[in-house]
Amino acid sequence: MNGQILVEKAYINGQFVKGRRSFNVVNPATGEIIAAVPDLTIADCHTTIDHAYDAWPSWRDTAAAIRANTVRKWYDLIMANKQELARIMTMESGKPLAESLTEVDYGASFVAWFAEEAQRAYGETIPSPKAGQRLLTIRQPVGVVAAITPWNFPLAMITRKVAPALACGCTVVLRPASQTPLTAFAVAKLAHEAGFPAGVLNVITGKDSKGMGTELATNEKVRKISFTGSTEVGRSLMAQAAATIKRVSFELGGNAPFLVFDDADINAAVQGAIAGKFRNSGQTCVSVNRFFVQDSVFDSFAKQLTVAVKKLKVGNGLDEGVQVGPLINQEGLEKVKTHVKDAVDKGAKLLTGGKPKKGLFFQPTVLADVSPSALIAREETFGPVCALFRFSTEEEGIAMANDTEFGLASYFYSNDVNRCWRVAEQLEAGMVGINTGLLSNAVAPFGGVKQSGIGREGSKHGIDEYTAIKYFCFGS
What we know:
It is a single chain. With 476 residues, the protein is α/β, with parallel strands linked by helices. It contains 14 helices and 20 strands. The strands form 5 sheets. It has a 7-stranded mixed β-sheet, with helices on both faces. The N and C termini lie far apart (67 Å). The relative contact order is 0.14. The mean pLDDT is 97. Belongs to the aldehyde dehydrogenase family. This is Succinate-semialdehyde dehydrogenase / glutarate-semialdehyde dehydrogenase. Keywords: Oxidoreductase.
């Protein structure tokens, strides 16, 4: 690969560094090795934290307007390099190029938003209960932030964490997923060009994800850890961070329900289902995992969905018109195969798909009348599979949707405004899509309830995760 922003080095204290060892980055669509990146050690991670800690006081004390301008320059550079960033993303993650281009816009929107929002991190004045006293608060950056991001959205998961942290005066040690480090290095190069001082943003890579995670979660100089990934890993990081009482924000596993009521617009519901299920081959944290369809419209929805799914084009994300790319690795493919086989063994009807293709590809699949005891009812499939369950009453549908320890995203379709309010309020999820299969944007709070996470990203609430409120009491 050639490109002005393609970098195969980590970014530490304002310098791009190679490291003593390396590991390969592989294109999941072709199996081709596209880069070799540094396999850094725990000692390297420790040293990087020290650099971020040393850079913090100066960056914290930099005027908010100057920080905001630097973050805005970063946004401008990201957008100016949109095409190349998208190509890098597709090469290392496998997602269709059209989706990668959309992700650049989406990811950059968080940078633009927080460049402005950090200048509105207001304190407050408080009426005092005593004469002569003056009470007020200010917001201050928490300090060094450790950000651990996943492979499925290599750019957006970075900017949702890093942009608010940098804008409000924190410094950052970013560890991207080992499958997709090139996007992280590319945005680091653009941040370097934007003028962030040395040590303010650092990007490290290494195959020892557990060891690096432990260092980031336990190091006393790290004041905050932000992680997107599995609930299992989130539990471990949270337990480790407890030793130093770190601030944490986690976006963890999901098991998103998608309810179709008998008064829904079926055509619109099918379109929403395609958007909510097959983006990034179903490998998104808010991807629909369980479709609950009311009895009277079940057959109609299943038939129309199957027709739409059969039209999806599978292939290399760089090829024209491809809508569904590969799974990220063999482990991901095996999980999809296991879930489909288990559902069929337990009585589900296979309406289309159901088989792997050459390499890491899997046919877009629709399963009808899936048993509540199937694995897919309990576990996040993370693949291009629609699992359809029946329900009779509104109460039953809501109960089935809520029957999970997860609570990230949820979706439903209905044309009854009263039902829309009832169901939206009763679904146990941090986000609810009503008559839409897409719900995320920079101005709205992104996050879950139950075991799907803690904290919110995006919106005015996103800045809260990286600031602490300090209270002043002036005596008479």
